[in-house]
Design a protein that fits this description.
381 residues; alpha/beta; seven-stranded parallel beta sheet; six-stranded parallel beta sheet; 16 helices; 13 strands; 16% strand
Length: 381
Amino acid sequence: MTPKKKILIVNDLVVGGGVEKLMYDMVMYWRDKYDITVMTSIYCENFSEIYPDDVHYICSSIKKEYNKNIVERVYTKFKSKFFNIFFKKTFATKKFDVIIAIKDGWVMEEVAKMNNAPVKYAWVHTDYKSFYYTKEVFKTAEAERQCMKSYKNVVCVANTIKDSIIDVIGDPGNLIVKYNPIDVDAIKEKAKEPVEDIDVSKEKGVTRFVTVGRLNYQKGYELLLEACHMLERDNLKFEVWIVGDKEQWSDEHKRLFRAKERLNVQSVKFLGGRKNPYKYMVCGDWFLSSSIFEGFSLVSQEAAVLDIPQILTDCSGVRELLGDSEYGIVVGKSVLDIYEGMKRIIENPELHEHYKEKIMERKGVINFKERIDSIENLIYS
């Protein structure tokens, strides 16, 4: 019997946003065919509750401990240093057939240094024109370009991502585009679950927008709050549900709550994080995204699968899904643009059926098996 090909997927987190969702879907689809190991830099205590037993897990750091006692702090620091030395020695002995850096920036840089496999691939989810954060990691465009060249291919999740890399740091010569796989059947099934923790009824004539994403700067929620404030001053009937958890390493949620209180916005509800956001999404009339930058938003594609009309800010990948407002409404990344787009929807209820029909036409481009088989063919080769 031929041994299974060994694949190592490297990331910083086990659970997070769209990147971690992509990692999960890939692992779950491949785990019967390949011997898969997930490696992260931040320890995940409940990995075994998220992934099945046949998926291996290694972490390049130990669980962080926060101690007030100075003796305990010194001991923890010593323990961490000893672990790092031990980990490097043991990890160097492990061999894989393929290593995947599932995230750009620091993860890509670290995997480039690994000599544990003959073939390596990297994923890029960032629009370099809108958010060139990797400059802090690589310092120069030349250094980042050389890092990318160490991979067989660098996979961009949208054509606009590929173009942005070439425009900002130059072409490493191995960029390809592969759309993220979306597990259509699983999403539709989860969307059928009833919502029992909140009242989903709404007053007649009220337009409900639902947005999904962590409470961070990227999602543009402060712009959304400002736009909602303006809509309320116009006495328009609407409400917004924000489904998303706060980030442990950021106090952005506090800033957003203060902004909501300062503006006295009554139409916006922060629902917090949800394991199944889809059942809340289908309770909305429209899916909304106010993001300042994205790679190719997974959740907007998931909304398309659920036949939900969309209004999205003009981030990377949006026009690859919605065209030039042909299959949904594309607006600029400003308070005024978001306000005007939402106002148009509220004042013209007939737009709902029009764009519902259009997104139902468009969702045919989102085929889970085609997308993930395309990625698998790349790696298997």
